Amino acid sequence: MNNPLLDRITINHDICHGKPCIRGLRYPVEMILELLSSGMTTDEILADYDDLEYEDILAVLVFATQLTQVKSIRQLIS
Fold it and tell me: Are 8 and 29 a contacting pair, CB within 8 Å?
């Protein structure tokens, strides 16, 4: 799956210790996922972070979706 939104996700070892970020802005993908999973809406996130765009949130979701598209996952929690 080659989604152009994924171009918004950057990985640079000099930014956020190499974690996937949005457009090199030092907003890690995991932070946006945490905000969404805590119940924040896309509009609330965009209001709090002026330099983020709607497509950035979509890119995070596409990226997370691709990470979960595996054949099997070992149990991570005992």
Answer: no
